[in-house]
Design the sequence.
């Protein structure tokens, strides 16, 4: 499999090079040269396969022969070491819980898969120079990457996060692990962190000091495995006679884009729904046809505080850069903090279900969509455990939550971070 830059001004590369480089020399995101649908027989019989077997069938075409079959199967099996349950909420609505992994966030899948791919390439090539994984996070990405790469030989991880704009639990997962993980606390928003990371990849002055790669969803090894759990969800549906839609709370749009890859692979998804907070660049685009990135507005659903979503260009590519074609496959809604809080309260009081603010927005968007849909069932994605958002849950709910073991392991550890305010702060650190 070859990958090309969506800016179309860089050479095509292998899976290995797309993973190691993260971003193309022309600052474009890599995209697979082809997407071959899986057989209908395979999809109709998902019940007969384990999650690891399903994951391998999905990912093997994107890796090609660059990782041998047995090694790739082992990577997938180690990646998928936890469950992805569908929890019924009300008629035609369920929650797909993606927070049962080591850091209790959906990004554990991509983080673990990418870490193991990089570890394989490093071991195979016997590199004497460490690779530095440089990643920006609005909340959960950093923790998932830190956990996935913790202790991996030949890999150092540098995480940029916006100061004061992640939850206490999220911050501990970024800053308290030590070993090969370093956290840089940035004065600014997530978009500032993301811009620094993109700039660093193309900074020739850094190349003599570091071999850089990214573990944000701009990296194909972080992005593509997220297609797995749409298949896992479909496998669990008891009634497959109704149309299925997925409502995905969206920030950088890698997750929903991976769902669209699952759709391209043949999974019978009717369409997608994106729920955003007041950072509503994509819903506005669907309404007006004008794509206009905005300055980020802080909200209680901080992982969606993104004003310039990197992965949206991949979604456009999947729809031939045709807004009308995209509108037929994607509906967009946005909600305020007050609306998200009210939805968390509704889910708790009526259904005894504890949602955090991102999942609550996914639920609201799905409810909105289903008002005019017939013969349709929907799943909203719960992308992180509510324990990560104790200070913004519906009043009184936080007190009912017992800390999971994954959180107990880090919550009392001291925070260790390095504060920077600009790109020079990042380059000074990387050159030190």
Sequence:
């Amino acid at each position: 499999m070859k990958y090309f830059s969506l800016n179309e001004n860089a050479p095509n590369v292998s899976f290995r090079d797309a993973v190691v480089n993260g971003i193309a020399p022309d600052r474009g995101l890599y995209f697979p040269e082809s997407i071959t649908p899986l057989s209908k027989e395979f999809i109709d019989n998902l019940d007969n396969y384990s999650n690891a077997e399903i994951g391998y069938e999905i990912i093997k075409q994107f890796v090609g022969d660059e990782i041998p079959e047995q090694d790739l199967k082992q990577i997938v099996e180690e990646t998928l070491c936890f469950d992805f349950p569908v929890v019924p909420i009300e008629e035609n609505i369920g929650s797909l819980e993606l927070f049962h992994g080591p850091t209790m966030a959906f990004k554990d899948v991509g983080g673990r898969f990418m870490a193991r791919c990089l570890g394989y390439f490093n071991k195979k090539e016997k590199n004497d120079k460490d690779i530095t994984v440089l990643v920006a996070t609005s909340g959960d990405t950093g923790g998932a990457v830190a956990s996935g790469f913790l202790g991996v030989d030949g890999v150092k991880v540098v995480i940029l996060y916006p100061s004061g704009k992640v939850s206490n639990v999220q911050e501990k997962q970024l800053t308290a692990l030590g070993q090969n993980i370093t956290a840089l606390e940035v004065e600014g928003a997530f978009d500032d962190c993301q811009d620094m990371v993109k700039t660093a990849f193309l900074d020739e002055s850094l190349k003599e000091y570091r071999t850089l790669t990214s573990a944000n969803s701009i990296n194909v090894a972080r992005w593509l495995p997220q297609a797995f759990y749409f298949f896992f969800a479909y496998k669990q549906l008891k009634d497959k006679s109704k149309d299925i839609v997925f409502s995905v709370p969206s920030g950088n749009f890698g997750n929903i884009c991976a769902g669209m890859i699952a759709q391209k692979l043949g999974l019978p998804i009717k369409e997608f729904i994106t729920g955003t907070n007041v950072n509503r660049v994509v819903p506005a685009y669907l309404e007006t046809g004008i794509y206009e990135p905005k300055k980020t507005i802080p909200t209680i659903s901080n992982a969606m505080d993104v004003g310039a979503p990197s992965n949206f260009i991949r979604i456009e590519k999947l729809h031939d850069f045709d807004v009308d074609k995209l509108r037929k496959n994607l509906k967009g809604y946005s909600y305020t903090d007050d609306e998200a809080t009210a939805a968390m309260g509704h889910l708790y009081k009526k259904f005894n279900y504890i949602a955090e603010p991102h999942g609550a927005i996914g639920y609201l968007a799905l409810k909105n969509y289903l008002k005019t849909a017939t013969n349709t069932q929907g799943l909203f994605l719960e992308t992180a455990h509510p324990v990560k958002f104790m200070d913004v849950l519906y009043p009184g709910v936080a007190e009912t939550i017992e800390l999971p073991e994954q959180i107990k392991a880090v919550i009392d550890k001291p925070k260790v971070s390095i504060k920077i305010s600009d790109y020079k702060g990042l380059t000074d650190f990387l050159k030190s």
Notes: DSSP finds 18 helices and 14 strands in the chain. The first helix runs from residue 15 to 21. The mean pLDDT is 93. The CA atoms of residues 132 and 212 lie 5 Å apart.
